[in-house]
From TrEMBL:
Keyword Ion transport appears in the UniProt entry: no
Subunit structure: Heterodimer of SbcC and SbcD.
Lineage, opening ranks: Bacteria, Bacillati, Actinomycetota, Actinomycetes, Micrococcales
Classification via InterPro entries: P-loop_NTPase, Rad50/SbcC_AAA
Composition bias type Basic and acidic residues, residue spans: 607-616
GO molecular function, one term: ATP hydrolysis activity
Name by which UniProt lists this protein: Nuclease SbcCD subunit C
Record domain Rad50/SbcC-type AAA: where: 6-181
Chain intervals for the UniProt region annotation (Disordered): 602-621, 684-719
Keyword annotations of the record: Coiled coil
Coiled coil: 310-360, 425-476
GO biological process, one term: double-strand break repair
Pfam families: AAA_23, SbcC_Walker_B
Length: 1054
């Protein structure tokens, strides 16, 4: 992998975009990345790692990669262009970050984005925009993850210096991240799982044997067996069996003895059960015979008692028999009797209805006409026919009356229309004059509004100018206060700096005066004095109140700090004075010679008020224009309403005249119809038209002229006519129904007389008297039948041969035979329980015996396999008696990798250290039971002594850790399939080397350039700048860091 270009924006300490052209920087092969501490040298490596893996190496938090120096709207991003093999990629990443909202306040969260592109010869082609897909492609082309890449491509000397002297477990943690040992770890896990399975199998076998022994003890206890039948007080057999469970042969012998005893007990129990069954059967037969005899004798006694009771009620039963027979015969003609009853009731009802209908009709016929037509008073059919002949005349009179009422209402409506039109015409002129007057007033307001709109722009400019003058005045006053405060602060800082300088000079003077006492402290008797050369020192100088170098350094640092503070205060005071001068100059340009905040505020307030008033008046222009247009429309509407009112007046007058003419024609038609209706039976003949509310003479003339309405009695006449028609029709129907009902009564009476005679009754009344309700009839029948059945049953009992035999035999002793049967049953149950218990024990013993023997047979192979698996698993896990080095399998594999790393590291260490030191892998047993196998020691080939790596000096440790890092990188590349790393970084640690060692280290790094590889040294050591010409300088400022490339052939700096 070779890096071509890196571009980072708002990343780490870099607030702006920085670009590093690695093709130019790495042209010489070896290049230097330098800068002060904290400038951001390592942040460039973090940017490369973040672009590849979306994360930074080590313990740094990737949430802090967004630059704190960048603008809030800046988008943090990293773009890396690199080549792997023959493929060239461009990778752009932007981490998740917050930015201000474009509208309103607050922030919004931007998610992380990625774009992976590949150059296909013709141009860049986007491979993926998804994090997971991009990560998969990067892992495929690099062949390693973030941790491996950070250790192989970016050699962190601090971590490898710690690795050099770390404990075995700490080395294991790093090696596991760099080398794939998963298959060996799987073997360890598999053996642990096998150990757990074998432990479970052993536990299962032991549990099964324990369970079987417990079950065997239950069997032995259930039947009361003992090991030696002759010694009933000896130990139970299950305890003896448990004591010898390690001997399958002894277990089988004891099991055979128990089986023999169980077989003997089972035979004895079966014989006892047979005897008990026979005894119980005989006792049960005897008890059953005794119970049967007692029951038969009791039945005979009960039957005789029943016959005596039946004889006592025989007379009553005979009466019930007769009543039941009469009621049964009467129930056969119940239907005919019910029909006659219903027909009689119906005929009486129709008689009453006929009388009522005749009376109602007679009451509705006028009295005069009743007197004239007495001959037809009893003929309802003729009355109905005559009434129906006048139905159409009555309906027409009602229609004309309704029509006349409607026409009168229309006439009143048209008259109201005429009155309304007149009112509208009277008020229209006044409304029009008022509207025109209001229009003139609104036009005057509109003119004022237009004048205000013309003056609005000038008022706004004046208010703006007043506001600007007020802001300038406020700023000048604030600047004067600030200048005074800053000037006072600068004076205070100057005084403090002068005091600190005086204190520092005083300490220097005292220090110079105390040099003799300090030299005297180093004098040793017999050694020469560094000043006079004498070997005797009779009176060395002494000073108790001595100034130490630490005090002097502290005073110098304080003086320097206070000088900086004084310079900063002077700078801030000068800046404030400049701002004050600018403000005063601006005020003078604005024609303000003196600053009077009160006057400026009053002027600004007055200008603002005038501008507000003019803007308010100008804003009413649209409202006035709408009001004027509305008033003009109102005048036009009034004119239109006057025209419409005149048309309505003419139209209403014409229609009213037409309606009055139609009303006169209707009155003539009414009079003709009333003359025809005088012949109807519902109209009295003696009163004529007067009965209808009409009249003659003057009244007729008035009707003709249309003053009174058509006769108002037409509706009453119609109702009287309809009521008489209804009453006459009901009278006719009642007469017909009465005749039909009397016919049905005569027919049903004849049929009923014939049926009752056939049933044996001499009249309808006697048959009716014999009737009883159906429920009572059934109760009478049930009583007779119950009496007969009880007598028959009692006689049948006394005639039974078994009953007669039981009565003739002696009475049995039921209590004695029952007690004997119960005793025999108890004995049978005890025998059955004993036999069942022994049989169950024998069955359980057979099952337990089979299971116990099988468990003991399987215990041996299971325990043997468990011991084998446990020993193997413990050995592979770094324990057990066979693993004397206490090395796990994975540690053994990593030890081989570490040995290879040490061999590769020694190739570089030999050159850097003049062949003096050699790293050796150590599998020496660690103390206090700790894991072993990943130790490192150093062999001093000049002395032949092997010692701990912690005894190396600072420079020696740096060279050893650098060699170890390079060796580890080579080993990881071999593990990854020979992956070629075209760009390599070595981070820090060169400050501990002397010039000769530094030259040797640089020669080793220079040798890494073979094959076109570029090596970057990250350091702030000044000596390296003169030795490495291609440089990338990182500079830091208060606003963030920048970078600059300096290399032969470089045209520009980034």
């Amino acid at each position: 992998m070779r890096i071509h270009r890196l571009r980072a924006t708002a990343f780490g300490p870099f607030p702006d975009e920085v670009t590093v052209d690695f093709d130019t920087l790495t042209a010489a092969g070896l290049f230097l990345i330098h800068g002060p501490t904290g400038a951001g040298k390592t942040s460039l490596l973090d940017a490369i790692c973040f672009a590849l893996f979306a994360d930074v190496p080590g313990v740094r938090d990737r949430r802090g990669i967004v630059s704190d120096h960048a603008a809030p709207t800046a988008t943090p991003s990293v773009e890396l262009e690199f080549t792997c093999g023959t493929r060239r990629f461009s990778l752009y990443r932007s981490p998740a970050h917050t930015r201000p909202k474009k509208r309103g306040t607050g922030t919004i969260e931007n998610p992380a984005t990625v774009t992976l592109s590949e150059h296909d010869g013709a141009g860049w082609r986007v491979v993926s925009n998804r994090n997971d897909e991009a990560a998969e492609v990067i892992h495929d082309v690099l062949g390693m993850g973030k941790e491996q890449f950070a250790k192989v491509a970016m050699l962190p000397q601090g971590e490898f210096a710690a690795f050099l002297t770390a404990k075995d477990d700490d080395r294991r943690a790093l090696l596991e991240k760099l080398f794939d040992i998963s298959r060996f770890a799987d073997v360890e896990d598999w053996l642990v799982a096998q150990r757990r399975e074998s432990e479970a199998a052993v536990a299962a076998v032991r549990s099964g044997v324990d369970t079987d022994l417990a079950r065997l003890g239950d069997v032995v206890a259930a039947v009361g067996l003992v090991d030696d039948p002759a010694d009933s007080g000896s130990e139970h057999l299950d305890d003896r069996l448990a004591a010898s469970s390690d001997s399958p042969e002894a277990v089988r012998a004891r099991l055979d003895a128990i089986g023999t005893q169980l077989d003997a007990q089972l035979s004895e129990a079966m014989v006892a059960l047979d005897v008990a069954v026979s005894a119980e059967a005989l006792a049960s037969v005897r008890a059953e015979h005794a119970r049967t005899a007692v029951a038969l004798r009791a039945r005979a006694t009960s039957a005789r008692s029943t016959l005596a009771a039946l004889d006592a009620v025989e007379d009553d039963i005979a009466t019930v028999r007769r009543t039941h027979d009469d009621a049964r015969r009467a129930s056969g003609v119940r239907g005919h009797l019910d029909t006659v009853q219903r027909a009689t009731t119906e005929a009486a009802q129709h008689d009453s209805r006929l009388d009522l209908a005749r009376q109602q009709a007679a009451a509705l016929v006028p009295a005069a006409r009743n007197a004239e037509e007495d001959a037809d008073a009893d003929d309802p059919a003729d009355l109905v026919a005559r009434l129906r002949a006048h139905d159409d005349t009555v309906r027409e009179l009602v229609r004309l009356e309704a029509q006349s009422a409607a026409r009168a209402e229309r006439v009143r409506t048209h008259q109201l229309a005429v009155d309304h039109a007149g009112t509208v015409l009277e008020t229209a002129d006044a409304d029009r004059a008022a509207a025109e007057q209001r229009a003139l007033e609104v036009e005057a307001l509109l003119a004022d509004t237009l004048e205000a709109a013309a003056a609005l722009e000038g008022a706004a400019a004046a208010a703006q100018a007043a506001r600007q003058r007020l802001r300038l005045a406020e700023r000048v006053v604030a600047s004067e206060v600030t200048v005074g405060a800053l000037a006072e602060a600068a004076a205070t800082a100057r005084t403090a700096a002068q005091d600190a300088r005086d204190h520092e000079q005083d300490l220097v003077a005292r220090r110079l005066g105390q040099m003799a006492a300090e030299l005297a402290e180093g004098l040793v008797d017999g050694d020469s004095c560094p000043v006079c050369g004498s070997h005797e020192h009779p009176a060395p100088a002494i000073d108790a109140d001595r100034v130490t170098p630490v005090e002097l350094d502290r005073a110098r640092a304080r003086h320097a700090t206070l000088v900086l503070q004084h310079q900063q205060a002077e700078s801030e005071a000068a800046s404030a004075a400049a701002l004050l001068a600018d403000g005063l100059e601006t005020l003078e340009v604005a024609s303000v010679r003196e600053v009077d905040l009160g006057a400026e505020r009053a002027a600004a307030s007055e200008a603002e008020s005038r501008h507000t008033d003019i803007r308010r008046r100008a804003g009413q222009q649209e409202a006035h224009e709408r009001a004027l247009a509305g008033l003009r429309a109102e005048v036009a509407r009034i004119d239109a309403s006057v025209t419409e009112a005149r048309r309505d007046l003419a139209r209403a007058t014409t229609v009213a005249e037409q309606e009055l003419a139609a009303e006169a024609a209707d009155q003539a038609a009414v009079r003709e119809l009333e003359a025809v209706h005088d012949l109807c039976p519902c109209t009295p003949t003696t009163t004529g038209g007067a009965a209808r509310g009409g009249g003659t003479g003057a009244g007729d003339d008035d009707a003709a002229e249309g003053s009174p309405p058509v006769s108002s009695s037409a509706r009453e006449l119609s109702r009287r006519h309809d009521r008489l028609v209804t009453a006459a029709t009901a009278w006719l129907a009642a007469l017909e129904h009465r005749e039909t009902a009397h016919t049905r009564l005569a027919e049903s009476t004849a049929v009923a007389v014939e049926a009752t005679t056939e049933a044996g009754f001499d009249s309808l009344e006697s048959a009716t008297a014999a009737l009883v309700p159906q429920a009572a009839l059934e109760r009478l029948g049930d009583r007779v039948r119950d009496h007969d059945r009880a007598r028959a049953a009692a006689l049948a009992v006394l005639d039974d041969a078994a009953v007669r035999e039981a009565e003739s035999a002696p009475e049995p002793d039921l209590e004695a035979v029952t007690l004997a049967a119960q005793q025999a049953r108890s004995a049978l149950l005890e025998a059955q329980s004993a036999q069942t218990r022994v049989a169950a024990a024998a069955s359980s013993f057979s099952t337990v015996r089979t299971s116990l023997v099988a468990g003991l047979d399987a215990a041996g192979p299971t325990l043997e396999r468990h011991h084998r698996v446990k020993d193997l698993a413990d050995t592979f896990a770094g324990g057990g008696v066979n693993n004397t080095l206490r090395m796990r399998l994975t540690s053994y594999v990593l030890a081989a990798r570490l040995d290879k790393v040490a061999q590769l590291a020694n190739e570089r260490l030999r050159i850097m250290g003049d062949g003096r030191y050699r790293l050796e892998h150590s599998d020496r047993l660690a103390a206090r039971g700790a894991r072993s196998g990943l130790g490192l020691r150093v062999l001093d080939q000049w002395t032949g002594v092997t010692r701990e790596t912690s005894t190396l000096s600072g420079g020696e440790a740096f060279m050893a850790s650098l060699a170890l890092a390079l060796g580890l990188a080579d080993a990881v590349r071999e593990e990854a399939g020979g992956f070629d790393l075209g760009t390599l970084f070595v981070d820090e640690g060169f400050g501990t080397l002397d010039d000769e060692s530094l030259e040797q280290v640089i020669s080793v790094l220079d040798s890494l350039r073979e094959g076109g590889r570029a090596v970057g040294v990250v350091s702030h050591v000044g000596e390296l700048r003169s030795r490495i010409t291609s440089q990338l300088a990182v500079r830091k400022t208060a606003s963030g860091s920048t970078v600059a490339v300096s290399a032969p052939g470089a045209e520009s700096a980034a």
